[in-house]
Amino acid sequence: MAAFSLKVNADVHTVDVDPETPLLYVLSDELHLRGPKFGCGLAQCGACTVLVQGEVVRSCVMPVGAVKQREVTTLEGLGTAENPHAIQQAFIDEGAAQCGFCLSGVILTTKVLLDKTPKASDEQIREALSSVLCRCFTHTRMMRAIKRYQARGHENSVLDGHTSERDVRE
Amino acid sequence: MKTLYLTDTHLKETCVNKEFSRRDFLKTSGALVVSFGAASVIAPLAAAQGPFDTHPSHIDPAKLDSWLAVASDGTVTAYTGKCDFGQGMLTVQTQLVAEELCVPINKVRIIQCDTSVTPDQGTTSGSQSTPTNFNTQNLAQAAATAREALIGMAAQKLGSPADQLTVEDGVIRARSGKRISYDQLIGGKRFDITLNFGAKRRSPTEWKVLGKPVPSLDWLALMTGTFEFVHNVHVPGMVHGRVVRPPETGATVAHVDEKSVEQIPGLIKVVVRNNFIGVVAEKQWQAAQGAELLKVTWKPGPGLPAQKDFYDSMRRQPSRDVMLVNSKDVDEKLKAAAHILRATYSHPYQAHGSIGSSCAVADVQANRATVWSATQSVYPTQHGVSTLTGLPLDSVRVIFVRGAGCYGINAADTVSYDAALLSQAVRRPVRVQLTRHDEFISENYGSACVIEQQVGIDARGAIAAWDCATWSATFGGRPGYDKPGNVITGMLAGFNPETVTPRAAAEPSGELRNGNNAVPSYVAGCVGGKCSGGGSIRSERVVTHAVESPFFTGPLRSPLRLQNTFAQECFMDEISTRVKADPVAYRLQHLSDARIIDVVKAAAKASNWDARPSPRRRNPRTGMVDGRGIACVAYEGDNGYAALVAEVEVNLVSGGVQPKRFFIAHDCGPISNPDGLRNQIEGGILQGMSRALGEEITWDERKVTSIDWESYKTLSLGIELPAIEIVFIDRPTAEATGAGETAITLVAAAIGNAIFDATGGRLRQVPFTPDRVKAALREL
Q1: pLDDT digits over B532-585, tens only?
Q2: Which residues 97-116 of A are in CB contact (within 8 Å) with B?
Q3: Is residue B215 helix, strand or coil?
């Protein structure tokens, strides 16, 4: 065991754990964060995805000792229920979830891609998501949400003022 | 905008609701996220989430108070035994209660599946939640009963005839201007009445909240990462458990070397009960290391049948047989037929493969137990935990907390048992997280099936007789109330799984039983002189054979219905090819059920169906070819109707199959939430595509070898997505049917038929891997 200082979602926490402990377990069990989740523990599905200094990381296989001074951002660190991040808002607008367990992988992976490559082609988006799984197969809506976020650019948004294409369609 | 709408109840009350808008919803949805915070439910058993005493003996589904309570602030709390796994039951049940009680949706709170609070509604499964709670009983009838009772009370208090009262947002008004609210009438008090089956339901033609595309109530919390899954439950004093499953199927424990892990810091206990082994430690990482490092000597299992011959060996096993229809003239009609056509289809074991490996938390003390579980079956799980722990049933409470989408009995039940056994052994709350490997090697797979089809065709090309025999592999299943051995943990702990007792088939009697869709849609389905099948073929014989499986099995989304429909709908295509008929026209020629006919016609129309016999007969050798295929079903015989057209491209060199477009016509009676329904249909089609194209449990001589997401092939988010077009056939006056499993039932058949149309190669074995496609092409 060893005491670590960990910067997560702009807060600094001190945790006393074995440095080999996967970052996911620290986020879930010690800090009680709900965004990253245990999917496979093998870095094959994406459910545990977090950002470490802005880069996509599968937290189920990253030892907490390897994080060091870098800042960790989880899905709940992106935006709040009161003020969701624009990409979260795009997923809300498109209703892009069923069980929702996979969303950390889908949203954070996409966000990093589009931050770096705002005009990413469909092929680039597919490539980025080729190791992200959604077993409810909400793929159609997720892809619509991603395109919606991409089309609107990256400005933050608030709940009011949005109209959904779905309202018109229904 | 306000809309006035009238009901034709005997009370003739006028109920006014505000038109629901998405904007209204979004403004209020933050308050609507129903989350089962563990902190609020760790209090003693009696102090639960309900406003009244909460103990199993108080939960009587005949009493209104078991279903509904109006709080002193006017909030309506409804208790349901049908829970939400991501399929939308929370939202539609909220809509249902708001609709029936004429209250805004944000005044309704739903409590789902808690053995100390909610009525025992068995298992949330089988596309039964909507039929159960939205038709003429249970939650719907409770809400209608409450509305009529409140209007009756208001009539007395306001001194006005009931038929001159209006209701708006939970406030009842008389013409005189006097008004009284629900909370003034009953707030915080019991109704103390029984369910009134004469209370009139609001008609779908009057719906203002139901029937609307209400956004799912959990989306905001899900997208922002604050939704509480069972994986997020934390109980004070909680420690962590991991299990050690037999490395080979059927292996048993010879010796456990506890010393092998005693150096691990934080280790609390190695727990052994029969063949069940678990490790408990202070922290999850310590428990994980303990489970990995624990030295166990195993006695080998009996070995596994060779996978390459498995479908043949299934048909040689002793079996439990059921005859579903038998017109007793099939052999004679086959002899007289102008042509005979036969084909055999096979479908593999497939995994539920929930994205989150299963997890549960249990707190088993000397005299009581609480389990936080993502099970579909809180009451049966309560019984199972009682049996495993030896605690009286009344002392066990199981609280549903959502897990990852399950699609049937994933490992949520078994991990609840794991947590209970480990907690009982250490007398502390224990959280158990299964690994992906644990779950893949021992979950209750969807059954492997072999289906033999045979028809006689008359001189005019019509089907004269249909003969069908199915084999499905089964072992264990849902534990129900008294079979904890039906899942791996129960069996390892010493309880017997249900096995197959061979039995010859009796002649069919009673009513047609087509819950597994073993009886093709095209036969008359006559039992005891009453014909309730979907078609016109009167010479019919269907026999099902259940054989013992080497692996645990259990319901997986559209259990057996998907496998049977795959065989029937592909075979129907083979027959239409044999007689050079268009597959749509040939189906319609043999169908009599108006609802199946309507979906077939609607799907064909939506897809601009290219009417001609299949295949297209272009005989290209290389490159890409495209084709279209159709399949239809009356799910479980009468629990939902759909027809699906698939358009696919096949790469003749690689054998790769790329679905390009799907068109589905869907009829589930009145539609409670069109957006939720679309979500289910879209997901069902793509999940069906994944199952049709890649998913298959594999094994060697001793063990399962599909153990992770590299060895078990699922379609990732990086695939090229087919377009999906949905046509709803709305039937507001029909009974509500299930809708979560209808679409997926059709996908393998529609894709298989489209591959045939494109190439002339017939795939009779799922999944349609590139190798199998190439093998089918080589046979041409």
Answers
A1: 999 999 999 999 999 999 999 999 999 999 999 999 999 999 999 999 999 999
A2: 97-104, 106-107
A3: coil
User: Tens digit of pLDDT for each residue in B722-776?
Assistant: 999 999 998 999 999 999 999 999 999 999 999 999 999 999 999 999 999 999 9
Residue pair B687/A135 in contact by the 8 Å Cβ criterion:
yes
Question: A44 near B708, Cβ under 8 Å?
Answer: yes
Query: Cβ contacts (< 8 Å) between A92 and chain B: which residues?
Result: 215, 219-220, 223
Q: Which two tokens stand for residue B227?
A: 């939704």
d(CA B391, CA B423): 13
What is the C-alpha to C-alpha distance for residues B10 and B12, in angstroms, rounded to an integer? Answer: 5
- Which of B83, B219, B223 is the best mutation test for A, with the most CBs of A within 10 A? B223
What are the strands, taking DSSP E only, across B206-251?
239-243
pLDDT tens profile B442-490: 999 999 999 999 999 999 999 999 999 999 999 999 999 999 999 999 9
- Burial pattern B241-279, b for ≥16 Cβ within 10 A else e, equals bbbbbbebbbbebeebeeeebeebebbbbbbbbebbbbb
The 10 Å CB-count burial string (b at 16+, else e) for B668-695 is bbbbbbbbbbbbbbbbbbbbbbbbbbbb
Mean pLDDT of B73-86: 95
Q: Which residues of A touch B675 (CB under 8 A)?
A: 95, 166, 170
For B757, the enclosing helix (H) or strand (E) is: helix B744-759
Interface predicted TM-score (ipTM): 0.93
